[in-house]
Amino acid sequence: MAFTKKVTLKSSDGELFIIDRAVALQSRTIQYVLEDTNPVDAIIPVPAVDARTLSKVLEYCKKHLIDLNTDFEDYSKWDKDFVDAEVWMLYDLIMAADYLHIPPLIDLICDKIASMFKGQTPDKIREIFNIDNDFSKEEEEDFKKKSGWAFK
Amino acid sequence: MVLETIPCPHTSAEEETLSIALMASVVRPWSNLPNDILVMVFKRLLHICDRIRFRAVCKGWRLPVRLIQGLFPIPKLPWTMEYMWKKTTDSNRTLSICKLREPDLHQGSSASRSFIIENGMMEGRSNFVDAEACASRDGWVLFSKEEGKGSLIFFFFSPFSKEVISLPHLESPGFEVATFSSAPTSPDCVVFVTHPPESRKISISICRPCGDDRTWNSSTFRVPRFFDSVESVAYMGGSFYCHFGCFFRMTSFNTANQKWRIIRIRSHPSYDNDIVIDDFDVFCFSNPNYLLEGEGELLLAYAAKDPYSPYPGQYDEEQFFLYKLDWKRKAWRNKRRLRGGAIFLGKTSFWISSEGETETVANRVHHYSRGTPKFYLSRWDYPFGHVEEYREYREKCKICYHPCTEGLKTIWIAPPPEF
């Protein structure tokens, strides 16, 4: 039986994830931890990421490790489905990807978020992302005056 | 430590739904996203409107300009502004139509838009009635009109901010060209106007919109014989250059030391190619010509008569000759290649160096002729010939500009500032 090194990650809510070392190495954050301490069978805590998000991130890492040989079309379709998620999930994912430092995943999610902005008014964007408008009346007026043409 | 399984929530479907609902109910602080993530999203917004709107969502997303400036440029092709201001029966109100159009880089995709700035009856716009655009720079357009006899009105209008900057009345029977050096909100802006020459003298008027003294200052200078009228003007490196409609006749006016200089062009351009101009005099004196700055060089574009035109004697602007000024030898030299640059001719002409997405316009001279955008290519021969086969070439050459709305006037305008 081939010997594969395993790594154990512990999510913020205490769940343990045993994964191949190669999968974990896609996260630069974990890569640094492994290089620094080289823990054998030790648990690496991931305090900023909960289990649901971590499992989704690891799903991405596994896919992108195993399927390196699949052609581009397949890959992009899978990626597209992967980020076809609820808005709150995207937030958790981007924060996790940022914390774990997985550049291709960050790019993928940023592409998705940016695509949701295109052609939308600030009001609509606030609605989609559940953001409060914290600008004062005067500031709003100032935007309208300076670049009102861009809001129509 | 040995771990047997990958623990995952062993929950019933009902619990699963409940837990998702719980997860979703926690508010995600989108407005507090770290700046580095916001910048990464921002750079993916390729349309200027999306960028402006993005920064208007909440304070957390109002990225400081220093973080985004110059990092993610979007194509800087000129836009066009179409306008008309008409008198109505109601003396307080003016029929105002003003539209901005951006170039269509993606061939009829929804990415190209036109923006209606004004369309309807506007109050307090009596100055605008029948005003004509004279020049455009940095998103500002200089307008002029005659007010009764012997008085000229000049004002600036920015279609992006709808700001109007009025200048004092200029007491003069008329003018030939008018232009300006930089945005009228910048302290070093100078407005430059030339008046029709009288017996070998020419007078010019300048005004500094942001200066302490906003009044017009006029000066009169001597000009040699045959310097009859200024045909086009360009601003470059602190000086206004006037072209008098003939190859040999140029002047410059330095805004800093107010010096007026006659530039003697010694030789006329060579026609060493296969183009022969038979009526050189006519060609010299009456063709539309455009002076402009491109990459630090002074360029001159001359519309040429098409020898095969079905309307002999008319200047159909079917071809453009392009010259650059050779300062050392004081001569106009043929400029056969634009080397990736693109030229936009009009009341104010623009040069852009095209790269990346804008290379679709590279090596072309763009010009609106009676409301129709035309573009000219230097192909196997010189000069730049009008590409007639509009439909056929549309695909290959990608014309980015649309015909002007009928009844409106059009002028090139610099694209809006990004932030």
Write structural notes for this entry.
Chain B: It comes from Vitis rotundifolia. Chain B: This is F-box domain-containing protein. Chain B: InterPro entries: F-box-like_dom_sf, F-box_dom, KIB1-4_b-propeller. Chain B: Residues 30-62 form the F-box domain. The complex is a heterodimer of chains A (152) and B (419). Chain A is elongated. By secondary structure, chain A is mainly α. Helix content of chain A is 59%, strand content 10%. In chain A, strand 1 and strand 2 (16-20) form a beta hairpin. Chain B has six helices and 25 strands. In chain B, the strands form five sheets. In chain B, strands 16, 17, 18, 19, 20, 21, 22, 23 and 24 form a nine-stranded mixed beta sheet that branches. In chain B, strands 3-2-1-25 form a four-stranded antiparallel beta sheet, with no helix packed on it. In chain B, strand 9 (191-194) and strand 10 (201-207) form a beta hairpin. In chain B, 36% of the residues are buried. At the A-B interface, strand 2, helix 3, helix 5, helix 6 and helix 7 of A face helix 2, helix 3 and strand 3 of B.
Attribute tags:
heterodimer, A: 152 residues, mainly alpha, three-stranded mixed β-sheet, 8 helices, 3 strands, elongated, B: 419 residues, mainly beta, nine-stranded mixed β-sheet, four-stranded antiparallel β-sheet, 6 helices, 25 strands, 36% strand, globular, disordered N terminus
Architecture blueprint of SSEs:
The complex is a heterodimer of chains A (152) and B (419).
Chain A (H helix, E strand, L loop, with lengths): L5 E6 L4 E5 H4 L3 H10 L5 E4 L4 H16 L5 H11 L4 H14 L2 H15 L4 H8 L7 H11 L5
Parallel strand pairs in A: 1-3
Antiparallel strand pairs in A: 1-2
Chain B lengths: L12 H13 L9 H8 L5 H7 L10 H4 L10 E9 L5 E9 L12 E10 L8 E6 L2 E7 L5 E7 L4 E4 L10 E4 L10 E4 L6 E7 L9 E6 L9 E5 L2 E5 L5 E6 L5 E5 L15 H7 L2 E6 L2 E8 L14 E8 L4 E4 L6 E5 L4 E4 L10 E6 L2 E6 L6 E3 L3 H8 L11 E5 L6
Parallel strand pairs in B: 20-22
Antiparallel strand pairs in B: 1-2, 1-25, 2-3, 4-5, 5-6, 6-7, 8-9, 9-10, 10-11, 12-13, 13-14, 14-15, 16-17, 17-18, 18-19, 18-24, 20-21, 22-23, 23-24
Protein name (chain A): SKP1-like protein
Family (chain A): Belongs to the SKP1 family.
Subunit structure (chain A): Part of a SCF (SKP1-cullin-F-box) protein ligase complex.
